[in-house]
Amino acid sequence: MKQYMYKVDTQKWHAFSTDMQFKNIAAELERATKAALSNDKELENAAFERAIILLDASITDPKWKNKTKLYQLRDAIAALYTNNVHPAISNLISKQILLQ
Fold first, then answer.
1. CA angle, corner 11, sides to 66 and 32, nearest 5?
2. In the predicted structure, residue 88 carries a pLDDT above the cut 70
3. In the structure, what pLDDT confidence band is assigned to residue 15 with cuts at 50, 70 and 90?
4. What is the Cα–Cα distance from 38 to 69, expressed in whole angstroms?
5. 3-class DSSP state of 71
6. Please, which of 17, 35, 48, 56 could form a disulfide with 40 given CB 3.0 to 4.6 Å?
7. Cβ proximity of 48 and 73 under 8 Å
8. Cβ atoms of 29 and 90 closer than 8 Å
9. What is the number of domains present in the chain?
10. Which of 57, 53, 64 lies closest to 28 in space, CA to CA?
11. Is residue 3 part of a domain?
């Protein structure tokens, strides 16, 4: 599969509400979970990478006053990406995001 770098239009991303940003990040974590359950490491990693890129775009969004939660979530996703953690963990994190 050809690799490419996922890019975010930050102007459009910043126009989304914080809730919508979280839902998009959670969707990428759901994709990672489904890929992991299908033993597709390439798709799983791509979804984690997109989630991190979207989080980075959220971190630059001025409407986020307290960015601590964003940094903690980014650290958790990076750990999932690098440590081959069970898919249930990424599923749990995505569900927690939606509850925020």
1. 70
2. no
3. very high
4. 30
5. helix
6. 35
7. no
8. yes
9. 1
10. 53
11. no
Whether the pLDDT of residue 60 is over 90: the answer is yes
Place of tokens 């980075």: 56
Q: In b/e form, how buried is each residue of 40-49, taking b as 16+ CB within 10 angstroms?
A: eeebbbbbbb
Q: Say how far apart CA 17 and CA 60 lie, in whole Å.
A: 14
Distance separating alpha carbons of residues 56 and 10, to the nearest angstrom: 10
Expressed as residue numbers, the domain containing 29 is 17-99
Asked whether 76 and 48 are in contact (CB, 8 A), the reply is: no
Average pLDDT of 38-50?
94
CA distance readout (Å), 87 to 25, 65, 66, 68, 71: 16, 31, 29, 24, 21
CA angle 14, 36, 55 (to 5 degrees): 15
CA distance 2 to 41: 15
- Is residue 83 assigned to a domain? yes
> For the residues 22-38, what does the mean pLDDT come to?
93
